[in-house]
TrEMBL record:
GO biological process: proteolysis
GO MF annotation terms: peptidase activity
NCBIfam families, per the entry: pro_imino_pep_2
InterPro entries referenced in this protein's UniProt entry, alphabetically: AB_hydrolase (IPR050471), AB_hydrolase_1 (IPR000073), AB_hydrolase_fold (IPR029058), Peptidase_S33 (IPR002410), Pro_imino_pep (IPR005945)
Family stated for the protein in its record: Belongs to the peptidase S33 family.
Protein's name according to its UniProt entry: AB hydrolase-1 domain-containing protein
A family per Pfam: Abhydrolase_1
Keywords: Hydrolase
Domain of life: Eukaryota
Domain AB hydrolase-1 intervals: 41-170, 297-540
Length: 560
């Protein structure tokens, strides 16, 4: 049985001798994990230049999932390392070689110069590429994230991106640049339009990124002396063309691409015979990758109940990185599959067994019933657990993401979380539940306070999640019948659901995941951890925006 632990964290400073600095210099660093573990460490270089390494701490999930030590540090002139404001504008001082020297100094001081991997993001990628072409003997793997290969190309690319902004925004930028007033609020606001479109599309930006920009405001020395910006394909492609052993992965919310070719995607419908439905039914599906590739496919079960599978399409990154086919589908009554609004309130129809039958039908249709992995999120995890305790012979690995094991315990946990909301929010929820007006705008707004705290902390929510909730609004049949009118009091057919007495029957390697601020709290996940013989449990500090990090753990369990 695996233990659920946070990684060891070490912070410190390394002396960095820079004669031309005119004073002692230090490099601040943070290490996740144990450098003496025998695992090759990953050193991560932050962007900017001028920000700090705070936003790279998300890489610590690699330490949790793969025991890989991760080293991040604030480059000289940045963050918690030595600042040299007296060197403002000194282009002979602020050179790429300065940062290469600092990296070599760090590698030597930490004793890892003979065996390490390197990741560089943005400016850190420029720096990493400049370092890698010197062929350091200990560098084993290189990751260049949003890193340009040529600055004149970057400038042209920047101009092309800027020309796509609205004319009024371009005019504001041009005017303040001509007047030398780029420190004005109006100029910053116009820059934020660009940043939202091409740097980070989350509004508000995650705090670690804001913290990084904050360091530039505190000390703009490095940024003002070395500045460059955003990357497009044209500035990345030279790496792809010239590096002998290379892979190029592009991420977006809708489509993931590798080696400049679109990922194979297949959609369709599967006939699903449900005698009690009184009409023909179909299951809508989407397959990423090739089911004939010889790789075991991963089937993902969406939550709700009542939403659709769109938000699970992020799992297609696994297809790109590991050639694992991924199947998502809208469960009956949801999304693009057959809807049965005439079955509203029919608890004898909307049972867990109905969805197990649908899953078996899908497995048979694709001819993969003898060899597959299964991931279930939230309600989908409950369904996956109910399925797995039957020990289906073709199931090889199980992933339960934010999945409770017992609904009575879930209700108690929900009440506890709800009690931590502001009192006025609690009062609104209670009032509308008592009055039977849970479909009111006021109730939904109060529920959103809970959702932002415990479901998804990104505001506004990613569109795929909003689309899922939109399906409940269009047709609440499944949600209302299985869950009930309120997220907080399960009154539907799932109210007595539990696998507590049968968890031990799950006989395949299992990965458990939940979030630090998850509505599916540790107490709800723990029964799985205690009873499943081969199990691993990973808790993530945040969720959606760092979803790609989840894949390290997913792939880890699938490769077992």
């Amino acid at each position: 049985m695996s233990s659920k632990e946070s990684p060891k964290i070490t912070e410190g400073e390394i002396h960095f001798d820079v004669p031309s600095a005119g004073k002692p210099c230090k490099t601040w660093y943070k290490i996740f994990g144990d450098l003496s573990s025998g695992k090759r460490p990953l050193v991560a270089l932050h962007g900017g230049p001028g920000v700090n390494s705070d936003y790279l701490e998300i890489l610590s999930d690699i330490t949790v999932s793969h025991s890989i030590p991760v080293v991040i540090y604030d480059q000289i002139g940045n963050g918690l390392s030595t600042h040299l404001q007296e060197k403002m504008g000194d282009a002979r001082f602020w050179t790429v070689q300065l940062f290469i020297d600092e990296l070599n100094n760090l590698l030597n001081n930490l004793g890892i110069a003979d065996d390490f991997d390197l990741l560089g993001h943005s400016w850190g990628g420029i720096f990493a590429a400049s370092f890698a072409i010197t062929k350091p003997h200990g560098l084993k793997h290189l990751i260049l994230a949003s890193a340009p290969a040529d600055m004149p190309l970057t400038i042209k690319s920047q101009e092309a991106l800027r020309s796509q902004l609205s004319q009024d925004v371009q005019d504001v930028l041009n005017r303040h640049e001509a007047e030398g007033t780029t420190d004005s609020e109006e100029y910053r606001d116009a820059c934020n339009v660009f940043n939202f479109r091409y740097v980070c599309r989350l509004d508000p930006m995650p705090q670690p990124i804001l913290n990084g920009f904050g360091w530039i405001e505190k000390d703009p020395t490095v940024y003002m002396t070395m500045y460059y910006d955003e990357m497009t394909d044209v500035v990345v492609s030279p790496y792809f063309k010239a590096i002998p052993k290379v892979k190029w992965v592009k991420f977006s919310s809708a489509l993931v691409m590798s080696t400049n070719e679109s990922l194979k995607v297949t959609t369709g419908e599967i006939p699903f015979d449900v005698a009690a439905a009184g009409k023909p039914c179909k299951t809508w599906y989407k397959v990423f990758g090739d089911l004939n590739s010889g790789k075991r496919p991963l089937i993902a079960l969406h939550g709700g109940p009542g939403v659709n599978s769109e938000y699970l399409e992020v799992l297609s990154d696994i297809t790109i990185t590991h050639s694992i086919p991924v199947i998502v589908y809208d469960q009956i009554g949801n999304g693009l599959s057959t809807h049965l609004q005439e079955k509203m309130g029919d608890e004898q129809f909307w049972t867990v067994q109905l969805f197990i039958d649908e899953l078996n039908n899908l497995l048979k249709f694709f001819g993969i019933a003898d060899n597959y992995d299964l991931l279930g999120h939230s309600w989908g995890g409950m369904l996956a657990a109910s399925f797995a305790i039957r020990q289906p012979h073709g199931l090889k690995h199980l992933i339960l993401a934010s999945a409770p094991a017992d609904m009575h315990a879930t209700a108690e946990s929900q009440e506890n979380l709800r009690s931590q909301l502001p009192q006025d929010v609690q009062d609104i929820l209670t009032k509308h539940e008592k009055d039977g007006t849970t479909d009111s705008d006021a109730y939904r707004a109060a529920s959103d306070v809970f959702n932002f705290r415990y479901v998804c902390r990104i505001n506004p929510m990613p569109q795929a999640l909003l689309n899922g909730f939109g399906w409940i609004a269009k047709d609440p049949t499944v949600y209302m019948t299985m869950n009930g009118p309120s997220e907080f009091k399960i009154q539907g057919s799932l109210r007595n659901w539990s696998v507590l007495n049968e968890i031990h029957k799950i006989n395949v390697p299992t990965l458990l995941t939940n979030g630090h601020y998850d509505e599916v709290t540790d107490v709800l996940v723990a029964p799985y951890f205690k009873a499943i013989p081969k199990v691993k449990w990973v808790v993530f500090a945040v969720s959606w925006v760092q979803s790609f990090r989840h894949f390290f753990s997913v792939v880890d369990i699938l490769a077992a």
